[in-house]
């Protein structure tokens, strides 16, 4: 007896283990159960897929078994492969999310440390300024290269401090000193009487 059953099974497009369970039924019928298992699929929902069950005579199975199972087996196989791909992508997304979260947490901690260092430096500048040590305060103002986001604030602070300790210009000194009021003739006469000569 020559059959091509296994050649036809081999031509089916599926991934996993195809399990056939054959049981003798009533009136010389056979009950055939077909279940596709895919151990690569990590999604537990695969366990909800029921087996295909057929109840027919041996002759009916010979004539139409393969055409009956072809579409469902391929559909179930595709579903489980998609479930596995989805599960892998989900796992990858979770891992990526964890990496991003750790990265964000690290950046947040670094920023907090940087902000704390900036605040401490500015507190020191305030303290020196209150003591009248304007040059030292100017030196302690943090470098703009370290804090580019606070560049304007740092420039203004340095300028304000340098104005307090800078040597005034000649014109600034002249403006700072109030001009002397010219003395009136009466005031001059009162303090320094003029000598008159008799002619």
UniProtKB/TrEMBL annotation:
A Pfam family hit: PRTRC_E
Annotated stretches, region: Disordered: 175-199
Keyword match Coiled coil: yes
Entry keyword Repeat: no
Coiled-coil regions listed: 76-131
UniProt entry keywords in alphabetical sequence: Coiled coil
InterPro entries in alphabetical order: PRTRC_protein-E (IPR022273)
Domain spans labelled ParB-related ThiF-related cassette protein E: 1-174
UniProt-recorded name of the protein: PRTRC system protein E
Organism whose genome encodes this protein: Paenimyroides marinum
């Amino acid at each position: 007896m020559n059959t091509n059953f296994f050649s036809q099974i081999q031509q089916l497009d599926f991934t996993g283990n195809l399990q056939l369970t054959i049981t003798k039924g009533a009136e010389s019928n056979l009950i055939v159960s077909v279940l596709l298992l895919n151990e690569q699929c990590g999604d537990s929902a695969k366990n909800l897929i029921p087996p295909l069950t057929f109840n027919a005579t041996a002759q009916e199975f010979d004539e139409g078994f393969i055409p009956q199972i072809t579409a469902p087996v391929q559909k179930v196989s595709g579903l489980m492969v998609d479930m596995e791909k989805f599960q892998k992508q989900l796992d990858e997304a979770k891992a990526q999310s964890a990496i991003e979260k750790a990265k964000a947490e690290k950046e947040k901690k670094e920023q907090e440390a940087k902000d704390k260092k900036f605040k401490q430096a500015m507190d020191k500048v305030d303290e020196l300024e209150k003591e009248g040590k304007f040059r030292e305060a100017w030196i302690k103002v943090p470098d703009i290269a370290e804090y580019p986001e606070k560049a304007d604030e740092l420039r203004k602070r340095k300028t304000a401090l340098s104005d307090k300790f800078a040597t005034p210009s000649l014109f600034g000194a002249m403006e700072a000193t109030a001009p002397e009021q010219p003395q009136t003739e009466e005031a001059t006469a009162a303090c320094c009487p003029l000598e008159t000569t008799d002619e």
